[in-house]
Write a structure and sequence with these properties.
Blueprint lengths: L1 H11 L8 H10 L4 H23 L8 H14 L2 H24 L14 H4 L3 H15 L5 H11 L4 H14 L15
Helix pairs in contact: 1-3, 1-9, 3-4, 3-5, 3-7, 3-9
């Protein structure tokens, strides 16, 4: 449950300064993702997490609980930040895509020429598809038995600004020594 929640939180609750392509490439070669990208991905993903939570937990949560009464307002704070958080989401998605393709085929990503996560503008064409995949993945990772716990977690961070929630996701991933993906150590630049 903790590993599932950590993964969901990394996508869910998570903008620091966006890294230049050269820095991101150097980090990818070092085998880690930047905490600012992880924070951006968390912010970007929150509306998607909301959809997944609604799908998985609609019958599990109280009609007068936090999610029913304040979930839409909570999610709206993030929806307005999706555009500026997209570059971090694009790069994080690229890390998962690259690892997934390599695991499946044992080779480098054959779509690398088409899907370039370091070109968020070019990747924007694929946003609807990426969003749909993420909603499915997140919904699949939430067990109905954990719906109330996820709702509680959301209510605990709800008073924070989205940027703080995103940074908190990066911090938690660093402190938890998250390995999928490996998170670069904090440098004090975020």
């Amino acid at each position: 449950m903790k590993r599932t929640f950590t993964k969901a939180a990394a996508f869910a609750l998570a903008s620091g300064a966006l890294m230049q392509a050269q820095v991101v490439q150097a980090q990818a070669q070092a085998g880690c993702v930047d905490q600012a990208d992880l924070s951006g991905a968390a912010i970007y993903a929150m509306p998607l997490v909301s959809q997944a939570l609604d799908r998985t937990c609609a019958n599990e949560l109280s009609p007068d609980g936090f999610w029913a009464t304040e979930g839409a307002a909570f999610t709206a704070k993030f929806a307005g930040l999706q555009e500026r958080s997209w570059p971090g989401m694009s790069r994080i998605f690229g890390v998962f895509m690259e690892k997934s393709m390599a695991q499946e085929s044992g080779d480098a990503n054959p779509l690398a020429g088409i899907l370039n996560p370091n070109d968020p503008e070019g990747m924007s064409v694929f946003r609807p598809l990426i969003d749909a995949v993420l909603v499915e993945q997140i919904a699949g990772s939430i067990k109905t038995a954990d719906c109330k716990k996820v709702e509680r977690g959301m209510s605990l961070v709800a008073p924070l600004p989205p940027e703080n929630i995103g940074a908190l996701v990066g911090f938690i991933a660093d402190m938890a020594d998250l390995k999928e993906p490996d998170v670069c150590p904090y440098t004090g630049d975020e």
